[in-house]
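Just curious: can you write whichever protein you like plus the matching C-alpha cells?

***
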Amino acid sequence: MSRQNKTGKLTEEWVKDKITSFGLIASEPVPDRGVDFIVTSVNDPEKNLKVQVKGRGKIQKNKRYRWFQIRTTQRQRDETLKEGLPLAESWRKKADLADIFILASEMFHEFWIFQRKDLDDLIFLNSKKHGNRADNKNGNQAEIDLDLEINGIPLTEKYRENLENWGLITSVFSGSQGPCAR
C-alpha cells in the first residue's frame, strides 16, 4: 500500500471515530463514488450528510502539512467540457458530490471542516498562487493550501472557526443552531 493510501485510510479512520463518538453513524457508501462517508443518526435515519475526507501525511518533502487536493476523474473532466466550462473547473463536479469536506492533517492531528460552499472561496484564493500549475489548468485537481497567506494572513487564521468545527456535522442532527461541538 502506498504512503498516500495509508494516509487516506488513517485519516478516514480518525474521522469515522470522531463522528461515531457523537453518537452518529458513519457508513461507507457502496459503490464508492467520491464520498467517503454517509453520516446518519439513529434518531433521524432519513437525514444524512455526505462527507469527503482529504488527508495530508506526516512526511512531506515540501514541508507543507496542510496542503490538500480535490482530484477529479476523467469522467468529471469530460462532463465539464461537455458543459462548455474550462477544464480548470472540473473540481466542482467532485466537490458537488459531498456536503462536508474534512481536511485532515496527520502531522498536526487536526481537522479542518468545511461546508461545500466554502470550497469555492478556498480554491479561488489558492488559484491566485497555484492556478497556473498544469494539474490545475488541465482539471486533474484543485489545490487547497491552508498555510497560504493572502495579504499577509494565513488561511489557517482566516478560517480558524473551521478548525475542529464538528458542529457543522452534529448540528444537522441535533436541530441545534447553538454552539458547535468541538
Observations:
- The beta strands are 24-27, 37-41, 49-56, 67-71, 100-105, 110-115, 141-145, 149-150, 153-154.
- The domain at 3-174 is CATH 3.40.1350.10 (Trna Endonuclease; Chain: A, domain 1).
- Residues 176-182 have pLDDT under 50 and may be disordered.
- The radius of gyration is 16 Å.
